[in-house]
Specification:
seven-stranded mixed beta sheet, 12 helices, 17% strand, globular
């Protein structure tokens, strides 16, 4: 009993001591990697000016509803491109069509951070964005941060709630550095993977919409995009799908993407067949995707986007079988 009383009294005296789940050495290192990563510097600089002006007006006018109506008139959150910008939050997350978001830049940030992302438990979140003419969410900047927990020795409580030894609080580290992603010219593996995943996800949904609605494109208005944007997606896939050593990426590039462009070529413009043919040929001839060989086999068999040629169809069927045999795919269970 005396021992317990001694410990209890000691705790009362040292109450207020706190313990972080990050040490001072790591905290210093974290500040080197956290901060703002900018995609669109021109828009980002405009936002800084507008938000500074809005802050000054709020100090003069107040922060009630009427004051903000006046602030919105004097310093509207409109960029020079005519688009309204938004701070990314749960409240604003549903602005625009979230399926229309080609998020290659989060992948680029992952390439830059490398192993430090997991080592220091860093978080990546969009900071500002706007909705472009095709209704795509267009990121302006990201914030990289580290959230840590602090436990403070705080003996207290009661019989009903129970006694506690510690109180907890959470804080965030965000470095002061601003990184312009346009200065990082190399396109790394993670950037390619993020781009492929989001491009193919959109193309698959868009192609399905065209197919299900029997080419009545007006019914796909929420997913509608300009031919220029579709061409840009095709060109990006031709560059990025060279990493298709990954089974899932190989399937997305070799089958999902090529099939989607085949549908788009059928219902919108035959010029989009070229992405089916070029991408499938690239992946099949290099032996990276048996799905790409199957796509070419089917297209040459029926003359879909290419002249009908049963001999070429048979050749691509043989290539498909060879890739599957070389990679022992006949004995592997099918994965959706």
């Amino acid at each position: 009993m005396r021992k317990f009383c001694f410990i209890f009294i000691s705790l009362l005296f040292i109450g207020g001591c706190s313990f972080k789940d990050i040490n001072s050495k790591d905290e210093k290192a974290v500040k080197q990697y956290t901060g703002i990563y900018v995609v669109d510097k021109k828009s980002f600089d405009e936002i800084k000016e507008i938000e500074t002006r809005r802050y000054q007006l709020a100090k003069e006018l107040g922060r009630d509803k009427k004051a903000y109506e006046e602030i919105d008139k004097k310093a509207p959150q409109i960029l020079s491109n005519g688009k309204k910008y938004y701070a990314y939050s749960n409240r604003n997350a549903n602005r625009g069509n979230q399926s229309k978001h080609i998020d290659r830049y989060e992948g680029k940030i992952l390439d830059i951070l490398g192993e430090n992302k997991d080592k220091f438990k860093l978080d990546i979140e969009k900071k500002y964005y706007y909705i472009d003419d095709d209704l795509f969410l267009s990121p302006i900047s990201y914030e990289v941060s580290r959230t840590y927990e602090t436990k403070t020795l705080d003996v207290g409580g009661d019989e009903g709630a129970g006694f506690r030894m510690f109180s907890r609080s959470w804080s965030q580290i965000v470095g002061s550095s601003v990184y312009d992603l346009q200065n990082f010219k190399d396109v790394g593996r993670q950037e390619k993977i993020y781009a492929i995943n989001s491009i193919v996800e959109f193309l698959t949904e868009f192609a399905a919409c065209l197919e299900y609605n029997n080419s009545e494109k007006v019914k796909c208005s929420e997913l509608n995009v300009s031919p220029k944007t579709l061409h840009s997606m095709g060109q990006d896939l031709l560059k990025f799908c060279d990493i298709s050593d990954n089974d899932q990426i190989a399937q997305k590039c070799g089958w999902d993407a090529t099939s989607s462009f085949s549908t788009i070529g059928k219902y919108i413009n035959k010029e989009f067949y070229k992405y089916t043919f070029e991408l499938a040929t690239q992946l099949c001839d290099s032996g990276r995707s048996h799905d790409a060989c199957l796509r070419l086999n089917l297209d040459y068999m029926v003359g879909n986007g290419v002249p009908k040629d049963t001999q070429k169809a048979a050749q691509y069927r043989q290539k498909e079988n060879k890739i599957m045999k070389d990679n022992d795919l006949f004995n592997k269970p099918f994965k959706e």
